[in-house]
Design a protein that fits this description.
mainly alpha, 4 helices, Arc Repressor Mutant, subunit A
């Protein structure tokens, strides 16, 4: 179970950095996350499999989302809006 939670935590960190357009280069980003560049690309591919519209913007030197999205994992009340679940929406 701990391994699943660690993967989810890394995905959440990647998502937050992408939302802020502050990932830096893949080398810098993977070092900041404490993972290999290969593992970073595996995580990004998993996110893309889940329909995350991720691309790398050379001018920003950051991974970015092509459109506004949010990632939330867990159980939430049915009446919660995406903004209540993830403050980085919008």
């Amino acid at each position: 179970m701990n391994i699943i939670m660690k993967h989810i935590e890394i995905i959440e960190r990647v998502d937050q950095s992408i939302q802020l357009q502050a990932t830096g280069s893949p080398e810098d980003f993977s070092a900041r996350l404490g993972i290999s560049k290969t593992k970073l690309y595996r995580i990004i591919n998993v996110m893309k499999t889940l329909d995350a519209p991720i691309e790398y913007d050379l001018s920003l030197q950051s991974f970015v989302y092509r459109e506004t999205v949010s990632f939330a994992f867990g159980f939430y009340a049915k009446d919660q809006s995406p903004e209540q679940i993830n403050p980085f929406v919008g």
